[in-house]
Structure formats: C-alpha cells, structure tokens
Design a protein that fits this description.
By secondary structure, this protein is α+β, with helices and mostly antiparallel strands. It has helices at residues 2-7, 27-39, 70-83, 203-217, 261-277, 298-317; strands at 13-21, 44-47, 58-67, 92-98, 103-109, 120-125, 128-130, 146-157, 166-169, 175-180, 187-196, 222-234, 240-243, 251-255, 330-334, 341-346, 349-353, 365-367, 372-374, 381-382, 388-390. Keywords: 2Fe-2S, Iron, Iron-sulfur, Metal-binding, Oxidoreductase.
C-alpha cells in the first residue's frame, strides 16, 4: 500500500499506534497483544503512560505505523484499473451468479424500480470474485460463519492540541482515537459504540455517549461529521479468501475482514490474484476459505447460530405486544405474524413496509442512529422506504399495501 502511495503521489502519515487498556481489567488483554506482536516479530513496546487526556492504564506501542485516507487511495486504484483496460460499473448491484464457464453475473441498477425488467443486466466472465461485504450468494453458508457488526465514528474540530498518535482500546466500551488532516486543519476522529447489527435497542444512545466522551476529554470539541460502517467478524478470527465452494476455482470470495479491511483487503487481493495468475504466496493459506483451521471456530459457530435462531423467534413474537405510533426518527414493528408492518417516521414522512427480511425471513429492527431497518439474523440493512442498503439480501423490503 505504501509503495503504491509513494509511486502515485498519495499522502499518508506515520504515527505511533497503541493498543491500550482503559483500566486495570483490560491490562491482561493488552499484554496478550504484546505477546502476539513479539511472536510475530514486531518491534512492539509496553508503555505504562501516554500523553493523552483520556484514561490510559497501559498498552502496546508500535512505532511509525501508517495512517491512510482510503478515498484518494481507491480513486488511484480505479485510475490504474481503467489505464489497464478495466471497467468500473457504478450504480448497479450484483444479485446472482450462474453457469459454470463462462459465469453470468446478473446486475440490477440500484436507481431503478426493483421489478423493472429493463433494469436487469448481465456480465459474463471466466472468473468472478465476490467481495461484497458478506457474499450475496448463500452457497458456502458464509452468512452463518460470520457475525455482522456495526460501528460508528465522529469527527471534531478541537481547539488547542490534538492527539497525534493512534489509539485503539482493547477493552469495552471500545474507543478509537486518531486524527485526519484536512485543508482547513486537523480533525479529531473518535470511533466506537459498536454492536451486532439489528440487536441494539437504541444505537443512538451509544453514539451520543461517544460524543459526550469526546467532549469530556477534549473540551470545546465541535462535532463536524458522523458516519458508520459495517464489518463481518469470522467465527475463527481469520478472513475467508478463496473458492466460494471447495475446488471451484472460477467463483472466489473475499470476506470476514473484521474492521481491518484496509490491510486484510490488500492481503486478500494479493492472495486471489496470485491464485488466479498462478503465483505462490504461502502465507495465503492462513486466509483459506475452506481449511482445517475452521474447526477452531465450530463452538463459536454453534453459539452464533443459536443466537440467530433465538432472534428469528423473537422477531416474530415481539411485535404482538408492540403498540403506538413511532416518533420522529424512530421505527416500530407491530402486528400479528400474518399482518406485521414496519413503520418509521423520518423528516416528517411516515413509511410502512413489510418487516420480513427477504434473505431468510428475519424480522428487522430499527437503528435510530443510522435511521435504517436492520436484520438481526445476518446483517441485511434497508432504508426507511425498504430499499436495500446492504446484503446478504439482494432485494428490498416489500412495501405495505
């Protein structure tokens, strides 16, 4: 990544990175991080103190780590792709992949009505890589081998000194602190407030608490930006990179980056391009999509899918006792199983859709921070009007009649 940045005139910053404990209870985890760094041959150091305004009980420091703005980096990759004859399609969503050779990828224009026939398109290819967050194909059951996670970030203008190094807590509640250079000055970036998608009662409360935390430790901080992200936690802690199904080398997958997409995504690209072009990267075996190392994740997978079953049942029962109309910025699922509705009010507009996720029949819940419907089973997300935001679902919620 850094070589690409250097060769294409992209700026980045070198700052010390810290995996730290906020209190004594987290010190054991932080020392485990130090042991892992040492085993990997990294020049990590233990520090008892840091020049920061927030609680710091001790942690691991890695010197001179890279801080990269992903947008210029991605724009540069697009330019490189097109320079070599590639084509980037925007405003389309992949829905199915069929055939054996060549493969046929069905695309739907996202700006068109979902049932409009002329919105469908097909692309053919000898090899296809599904890098869609979680695969949009259920073959391989990757949706059952990962847990969808949501997290949030806030940017602030801060008077006076700003924290220069990078900090990520190893204990809860997660706090991530760094800065971002902009033409008008450095922004403080604070992240955290994460939760499993669709399983938080009021995510907005946690985001508000995150903002309070920043204001407490950086007096005078003024929030300027808000955004959120979705990541997928694999059951055995390592990404899945390789065939969607064992021994089928024409349909490949890259997923399960667990909030480390800027590095794991590059590693996945190297591993897949090597696999396709006939190169050799021995370390890529650790990311294998089908491997004996998955056995270590079986207990986690069983627990994870028991929780999915519980949330499936809860989603169909809980609306029986729900009543009343939602307030501005809120959404409510109510009604008997045969006539359930999901009603939300955003910017004064009331919208009603079916709450049943088209992926595997989960009942969605409302995210009052992102103002969106979320499926608690496998992380599909939908706009207030039911439009699909994120898979594994490939179509939106049905409008209520």
């Amino acid at each position: 990544m850094l070589r690409h940045c250097d060769e294409h005139g992209l700026s980045y910053q070198r700052e010390d990175d810290h995996a730290y404990a906020q209190n004594e209870k987290g010190l054991g985890t932080a020392r485990s991080v130090l042991a892992a760094c040492k085993e990997a041959g990294l020049d990590a150091q233990w520090v008892d103190e840091a020049d920061v305004p927030f609680p710091f009980a001790g942690g691991v420091r890695l010197r001179e780590q890279a801080q990269i703005d992903p947008i210029p980096f991605l724009s540069s990759l697009v330019a490189e792709l097109e320079k070599h004859g590639g084509t980037l399609l925007q405003g389309v969503r992949a829905t199915t992949v069929s055939g054996t050779g060549p493969l046929r990828v069905s695309l739907r224009r996202t700006a068109e009505a979902q049932d409009t026939r002329d919105a469908q398109h097909t692309v053919t290819a000898q090899k296809v890589v599904l890098a869609t967050g979680t695969p949009v194909l259920d073959r391989g059951f990757f949706f059952a081998r990962m847990e969808a996670k949501r997290s949030y970030c806030l940017a602030f203008d801060v008077p006076g000194d700003i924290t220069r190094s990078m900090y990520l807590s190893v204990d809860s509640p997660t706090r991530s602190v760094r800065y971002a250079p902009t033409p008008t000055g450095d922004k403080l970036i604070v992240g955290g407030a994460g939760h499993t998608v669709g399983r938080a009662d009021h995510p907005k409360n946690a985001v508000t608490e995150l903002a309070r935390w920043a204001a407490l430790h950086y007096p005078g901080a003024v929030q300027t930006h808000y955004w959120s992200a979705q990541d997928y936690h694999p059951i055995d802690e390592l990404p899945y990179v390789g065939p969607l199904l064992p021994k089928f080398e024409n349909l490949l997958v890259a997923t399960g980056f667990d909030k480390w997409g800027m590095t794991n995504g590059v590693a996945a690209a190297l591993a897949l391009s090597s696999r396709i072009l006939g190169g050799r990267m021995d370390w890529a075996a650790a990311f294998a999509s089908w491997s004996p190392h998955e056995l270590s994740g079986i207990p986690t997978a069983l627990q994870l899918n028991m929780q999915v079953g519980l949330h499936l049942a809860k989603g169909w029962v809980a609306p029986l006792t729900a009543s009343g109309e939602p307030e501005e910025g809120q959404g409510i699922v109510s009604g008997a199983p045969w006539r359930m509705t999901a009603t939300s009010i955003v910017d004064g507009v009331t919208r009603t859709v079916s709450p049943v996720c088209p992926h595997l029949g989960g009942v969605v819940t409302w995210n009052d921070s992102d103002l969106a419907w979320e499926c608690p089973l496998h992380g599909s997300r939908f706009a207030p009007d039911g439009a699909l935001i994120e898979g594994p679902a490939t179509r939106g919620l049905t409008p209520s009649r």
